From TrEMBL:
Belongs to the bacterial solute-binding protein 5 family. Residues 109-523 form the Solute-binding protein family domain. Keywords: Signal. One of its GO terms (molecular function) is peptide transmembrane transporter activity. Its main location: periplasm. InterPro entries: Peptide/Ni-bd, SBP_5, SBP_5_dom. It is found in: Periplasm. SUPFAM superfamilies: Periplasmic binding protein-like II. The keyword Signal applies. Gene3D superfamilies: Dipeptide-binding Protein, Domain 3, Periplasmic binding protein-like II. This is Solute-binding protein family 5 domain-containing protein. It comes from the Bacteria. GO terms for cellular component: ATP-binding cassette (ABC) transporter complex; outer membrane-bounded periplasmic space.
Amino acid sequence: MTVGRTFLRSVLVMAAFAGGLQAAFADEWRTTSSLIGESKYGNNFQRYDYVNPDAPKGGTLNLVVLGTFDSFNPYIVQGSPAAGFTQFGGGLLYDTLMEQATDEGSVSHPLIADAYKHPDDYSSATYRLDPRARWHDGQPITTDDVIWSFQVLKANSPMYSRYFENVTDAVAISDREVEFHFSQKGNRELPKIIGDLVVLPKHWWEGTDANGKKRDVTRPTLEPPLGSAAYKIASFKPGSEIIWQRVPDYWAAKLPVKIGRENFDTQRFSYFLDDNAAWQAFTKGGLDDIKPENSSRRWNTAYNFPAVQAGDVIKKEFKTASPEPMQAFMLNTRRPLFRDRLVRAALTYPLDFESMNRTLFFGSNTRTSSYFQGTELASSGLPQGKELEILEQYRDKLPPEIFTQEFKLPVYDSPQAERKYLKTAVDLFAKAGWVIKGGKMVNAKTGEPFKFEILGWNDTDQVLSSPYIANLRKIGVDATLRLIDQTQYVNRVNNFDFDVTISQLGQSDSPGNEQRDFWSSKAADTPGSRNYAGIKNPVVDALVDRVIFATDRDDLVAATHALDRVLLWNYYVVPQHHRSVVWMAYWNKFGIPEKQPAYSGVDQNSWWIDADKEKALAAKYKSGN
């Protein structure tokens, strides 16, 4: 997942994945897990090499969040979880069995579990718990907690349900060891990603609240849950603010993954309903200390307020080496309007990325042309070798262009390009039974207009949609944008109640079980899944399984190329763009390690409050200077 941009590759690693290291260590205890070879730290991981191990603890991190919240239970479809909770992983409150590395791809290090092992046929995985692991109430984290968490999450969380689809059960084989059984052999990813399991406190969730009412893990709640991680909820105002306090006796504070990290004593999240109000809060200081920036226009034109000019707010660009997400207009094929592939192809051509990049994005973006952009897993050219062998099995069920044409998106590189590509779109519509009459695109048989709504929730959605809508109207397509508040937006997207929406799908260097949540027929009917397009394609289902059960790295690359190509040629989305950097602006109150993890770009958890800087800022801005 989210499942996160946390995977890296190397030539040595390829050979390892192909059979060497994985088989050599099968059924032996390992303290670090990797899908593509040995970690750069080997078997002696002491701490991340970029952190300051002596970083001081203390101070308050102030952050702003858009929207609102009404739940402290992020693992169900109902409700909007508060900041600090995540749908996948433990967030600020819970620990997972192992923790995904911030500076390497497909690597995890010990957390609740201090080691794991699996047999060479990948039919199961056993995790051994660290005897020091504790809940905030002092009770030990037990195998019962692990087993109960697995059962609850698989039953109630769409993400974990797809992720662990081939995990049949979990059983305790000792006081410290839990064995997970798999329904199929040969899934090389599954033993490792069991480590992503978030562990919940069974005794707390099965207990009663202050009013004597039995708690229900399948329902939203605003009762602060018991946790195990570095923070716990200190206070909150429903829907508007939540404050997290660092746990002073956190059991894992001295584990390698935590050294030099999680340094803020307090994290305060303030909610705003409007992006402009949130921006003003950042410029004034005090409510928002760090602003990840996604708007090219704002990054290039708006960071000229007094605090920036005085050097009190710093702009910085962090380069990343991780795969780029597929950001796109997601076409909901559950709607009859988008079920025809020719129609979906036609909708691709009116997007003039080049003009948008020049006039709106200051030339800072790159067009996304693969679901696995930035990795060797992205398809290119024509299929050949093993990929071609895989695709040949489904030739009669695939678009014929897959075998004869390289997939290319339109490039608006000349004044004549718009006319050319809009004509291509009209021709494709005509083949699908749609014609222009009276300036409107209508169904040739019924006269029904081609009309749809793009669902969004912020100003960025408007920036992305407006030029596209304008070009669609030139060919008679009646597209509109509807902006709603974030809570409504999340609920509608979770229930697939939209025609088109803008979203991102992040990938890794080692795709596997999460692909079911993105593309499978089953996920298309599961509220809360990330199959936004509603894809129900038997070939895609088969290729997802082919990826999951790849026999080695070469096989994985070929299978992923095939999946990528089939998804692209079916035009389930209209791709937008990506940027291989993270833009961040922050008030100059932090100590920051000189080096940040190249893979993820930035690890905010490795920062700390510089007390002298914070005091100087407070004095300066309180006095109005």
